[in-house]
Write a structure and sequence with these properties.
- By secondary structure, this protein is an alpha+beta fold.
- It has one domain: HIT family, subunit A.
- The protein has helices spanning about 125-145, 180-195, 200-210, 270-290, 330-335, 345-355, and strands spanning about 10, 20-25, 60-65, 75-80, 105-110, 150-160, 170-175, 215, 225-230, 235, 240-245, 255-260, 295-300, 320-325, 340.
- A ten-stranded antiparallel sheet has the order 3-4-5-7-6-13-14-12-11-10, with helices on both faces.
- The radius of gyration is 21 Å and the shape is globular.
- Mean pLDDT is about 85; it is low at about 90-100.
- The structure holds zinc ion (3 copies).
- One zinc ion binds near residues 186, 302, 320 and 322.
């Protein structure tokens, strides 16, 4: 059980030690809740929506459709407002990934589902599997087409709080000639851990989440302050994937999904794996939606980059999907200090998520 007393502690991200989070659950730390989100657009079809069926001529050219062009369920198109574009097109776009580059790359939109307002947890498991299989296929094609690309990010913004400008459910792929800083840090730090410990840190964290008991001692008296019990961070466990609540979560309801057995590269994930990923994702998102109601979130797929400098990271990096629900607006303190403030203890959040009864 979680200690009912409020917590105030700085937690170091075990993977990227330069990142830390202030977990502060006292009531006075909670004035920053965002306005209640606008009700989700649950319409199935919207006449004026460029991503709805029948409006295919209102989007940039189609790149790929699944299962076929006329009766598609998933469709990839060029992004109308790409953050990266073709070579030598100096139109002054500033690229928000902390590194100034020449703006070369690809930016594509994946219309996740033909139904306008459907949420991830409402999609069929088989559909989710196909969606991740399409991410895989498209990322492979892009890497093959251009060897200057170092990293391809698949991500999703769902809801206006998460930056989705078009309400029709969609995700995006950005192919870049650089490795963005947050991923760079993860790959670099996990490589250093591997050099010292001869183990993948992600595998270690999964084992810890499943097996061990951790004890937190009082710095002064040496007395036990809190015991963290077995499985405390596990939100959902499948046959091949696990959803865990990170110990140093930046966002109140942040959840990471990882393959249980070591794998650095999402592109090498098998069909059977994707099937279990779809199941774990659907169940996790159902839990989230039940607990926070109408989750607005971002998810990012972090897989090993194709950069030469990371060619030795197959054993040290472990691909994962980071789900970051947006339930509050960052404060000046957070933006200014770079220290995230999390007002719900990750142990508590995991417990609430686990408590959702999925069988009803
Ligand atoms: Zn639509
Ligand atoms: Zn691993
Ligand atoms: Zn990551």
């Amino acid at each position: 059980m979680t200690n009912p007393d409020s917590i105030r502690e700085i937690r170091i991200n075990p993977i990227v030690p330069t990142e830390s989070v202030l977990v502060a659950t006292a009531r006075n730390m909670r004035p920053r809740k965002s306005e209640d989100p606008a009700p989700r657009d649950t319409r199935k079809h919207v006449e004026t929506c460029p991503f709805c069926k029948g409006n295919e001529d209102k989007t940039p050219p189609t790149i790929m459709t699944y299962p076929d062009e006329s009766d598609w369920e998933i469709r990839i198109v060029e992004n109308l407002y790409p953050v990266l574009g073709d070579d030598n097109r100096d139109d002054g776009l500033i690229f928000g990934l902390q590194q100034a580059i020449d703006g070369y790359g690809r930016h594509e939109v994946i219309i996740d589902h033909h139904q306008h307002g459907i949420a991830i947890h409402e999609m069929e498991q088989s559909h989710l599997k196909n969606l991740f299989s399409i991410y895989q296929e498209r990322i492979k094609q892009l890497y093959q087409a251009d060897d200057r690309l170092k990293f391809i990010l698949a991500f999703k913004n769902f809801g206006p709080a998460a930056g989705a400008s078009i309400p029709h459910t969609h995700s995006q792929i950005i192919a870049m000639p650089v490795v963005p800083e947050n991923l760079y840090n993860e790959v670099q730090c996990s490589r250093e851990y591997f050099k010292k410990q001869h183990r993948c840190i992600f595998c270690s964290l999964i084992d810890e989440a499943l097996t061990y008991e951790a004890t937190i001692y009082d710095r002064e008296s040496g007395e036990v302050r809190r015991k963290i019990s077995v499985g405390q961070y596990v939100v959902e466990r499948g046959e091949r994937f696990i959803a865990i609540k990170p110990f140093a979560s930046r966002f109140e309801w942040e959840i990471h999904i990882l393959p249980l057995s070591h794998q650095a590269d999402f592109l090498k994930t098998s069909e059977e794996d994707l099937d279990d990923l779809a199941r774990v994702l659907k169940r996790t998102m159902t839990r989230l939606d039940t607990v926070i109601g109408g989750a607005q979130y971002n998810y990012f797929l972090h897989s090993i980059p194709r950069a030469d400098e990371f060619s030795d990271c197959e054993s040290s990096f472990h691909w994962h999907l980071e789900i970051c629900p947006r339930t509050s607006i960052p404060t000046g303190f957070e933006l200014g200090s770079g220290l995230f403030v999390n007002t719900i203890s990750p142990e508590d959040a995991a417990e609430q998520l686990r408590a959702v009864n999925l069988e009803q």
